[in-house]
Design a protein that fits this description.
Layout lengths: L9 E2 L1 E3 L2 E3 L6 E5 L7 E6 L3 H20 L2 H17 L1 H12 L3 H21 L7 E3 L5 E9 L2 E5 L7 H12 L3 E5 L5 H14 L6 E3 L4 H10 L5 E5 L2 H13 L3 E5 L4 E5 L5 H13 L9 E7 H16 L19 H16 L3 E4 L3 E2 L9 E2 L2 E4 L6 H4 L6 E7 L1 H10 L6 E5 L3 H10 L4 E4 L29 H5 E9 L13
Parallel strand pairs: 1-5, 8-9, 8-11, 9-10, 11-12, 13-14, 13-20, 14-19, 18-19, 20-21
Antiparallel strand pairs: 2-3, 4-5, 6-7, 7-22, 15-18, 16-17
Bound molecules: 2-aminohexanedioic acid.
2-aminohexanedioic acid binds next to loops.
């Protein structure tokens, strides 16, 4: 498993179709979170000069790309989706090695990229606007979408293929050029991704990638006057900073800033089903999904039974390298994440919660060199406790006990986030109430909080974002301007709002 620094490959930035080192010559490392002795590679530690070069390359490529008929752009997008599918297994393995999620989930991550690529390829032949009657005779009215220009795409490490694909495919099919800054924890996945995009036939400069830190690369992208739209997924503070910087230049900014997602389990629920959904949503991807369930809101009559079953199952979950077939829970992304989750366990117990299972880093045997943390459940959490309010992004589930649907709905909605939520109930009326009442961008009935599909809008309300949606055709709104077009074929002056009275 261990590799020496000499064997590990070096990757540059992808600018104008070429691989180039950072102008400063500096690099940084990416390591396997399941075994940090495994060095994955060296990557360009870029700065504003590299960003400027990438933006220039995008500017040069933009006129040709936006002039290409959208169905033709769709053909390249389709070829990209097919290549991604062809390389799914290789990419999934590299993803597991770089960020830790178990292999089946890494395959799902790549599949999400394939799905969105095919969906967006089809958008090349849809991209519908409105054709609508004019209020005046002999006059034609319609609206069309046009690209905004250069899109700055800043992506997280937890879905290192899927999320860059969601953002880039929507930007590209609508005729924008892209500068991608991937998370510093997953530069290898990003390098493999843009390599395939080059092979798929996106012309040089249409897709560019610059690796490096948020301060050295992200900020210059956001501040660059020639970057017209930013799409960011990550933490709330960074999102607000991007928003403020972008506001000064009237940029369009699309933010996806995470969640504090709840599953509500009513007394009439199928508990076997609920247990599976809760474990999958809370501990899948080691709790490191924006959509992960971090709050279980349980109806008091079934609370002891449900928590008992969850504790038993959580205690038995097998931790390890995501490349091992038996592993159910992979590592956290880095040492900082282990410290953060540990500290929240103390925060929770200090607030009066009871540690029901887990609660500490896992270091035994083969786990010794990785960032592992035991699946953790805190019971008796109060709705306003910090562990019930703050995004922890790890395998920590807070259980809040309530009486009945009204209290459950209030608890579900009682956070500053609003991404995903779920209800387990056998009562159709209760299910429909939840669909109406739960204040999140995504609601599940009798399923967990994770697993959004790419052809529906993805995103949330309140502190989760700023109103934009990714995926689905809603994603096109982020990367296009509407143009309304009127054609008067009457051959005379016709005054709207006046001559039709
Ligand atoms: C994320 O964690 O930011 O719905 C994305 C899901 C996945 C995407 C999660 N399809 O859980």
């Amino acid at each position: 498993m261990t590799q020496t620094a000499v064997e590990a490959p070096t990757f540059g930035n992808f600018i104008g179709g070429d691989w180039r080192p950072a102008e400063s010559g500096r690099t940084f490392e990416s390591r396997n979170p399941a075994d940090t002795r495994d060095l994955i590679g060296h990557f360009a530690a870029s700065d504003a000069a590299d960003v400027a070069a990438a933006v220039r390359a995008a500017e040069e490529a933009l006129p040709g790309w936006r002039a290409m008929p959208a169905p033709k752009r769709g053909e390249i997008m389709y070829a990209f989706g097919a290549l991604l599918a062809e390389h799914k297994e290789r990419l999934a393995r590299e993803m597991t090695r770089e960020m830790g999620k178990v292999l089946a989930e890494a395959r799902g991550d790549v599949q999400e990229g394939v799905d969105i690529a095919f969906l967006m390829a089809g958008e090349g032949r849809r991209m519908f606007g409105d054709t609508t009657p004019s209020e005046l005779p002999d006059k034609w009215a319609m609206s069309i979408r046009q690209p905004i220009g250069i899109a700055g795409i800043i992506t997280p490490w937890n879905f290192p293929i899927a999320i860059p694909c969601w953002k880039m495919t929507a930007a590209l099919i609508t005729g924008n050029a892209v500068v991608l800054k991937p998370a510093s924890d997953t530069p290898h996945c990003a390098a493999l991704l843009v390599q395939l995009m080059g092979e798929a036939g996106f012309p040089p400069g249409v897709v560019n990638m610059v690796t490096g830190s948020g301060a050295d690369v992200g900020v210059p992208i956001v501040e660059n006057p020639d970057v017209n739209v930013i799409s960011f997924t990550g933490n709330g503070e960074t999102g607000v900073d991007i928003s403020l910087r972008g506001a000064r230049r009237l940029k369009r900014i699309s933010l996806e800033l995470g969640g504090k997602n709840a599953i509500a389990v009513m007394a009439d629920a199928d508990l076997d089903l609920a247990v599976d959904g809760i474990l999958w949503s809370a501990f899948g991807t080691t709790g490191q999904r924006c959509t992960a369930c971090s709050r279980l809101i349980v109806d008091e009559p079934v609370a002891d039974d449900l928590v008992g079953r969850l504790v038993e199952r959580a205690a038995a979950m097998r931790l390890g390298s995501g490349l091992e077939a038996t592993t159910e829970v992979g590592p956290l992304i880095n040492g900082g994440a282990v410290e953060r989750v540990s500290s929240y366990v103390s925060v929770g117990t200090d607030e009066g919660a009871r540690l029901a299972v887990g609660g500490s880093p896992a270091k035994e045997g083969e786990l010794a060199n990785g960032h592992f943390f035991s699946p953790t459940i805190l019971d008796g959490v109060k709705p306003m406790d910090r562990v019930a309010q703050e995004e922890i992004f790890g395998p920590l589930l807070s259980v809040i006990r309530v009486d009945g649907y009204e209290a459950a709905a209030m608890a579900v909605n009682g956070t500053r986030y609003g991404l995903s939520s779920s209800i387990y109930t056998r009562d159709t009326n209760t299910a429909f109430r939840a669909m109406r009442d739960f204040a999140t961008g995504i609601v599940y009935v009798n399923a967990g909080t994770i697993g959004a599909e790419t052809h529906l809008p993805f995103g949330g309300i309140k502190g989760t974002g700023n109103g934009h949606r990714e995926a689905g055709h809603a994603a096109l709104d982020t990367f296009t301007e509407w143009k309304s077009i009127y054609v008067d074929y009457s051959g005379r002056l016709q005054r709207a709002q006046i001559d039709n009275q």
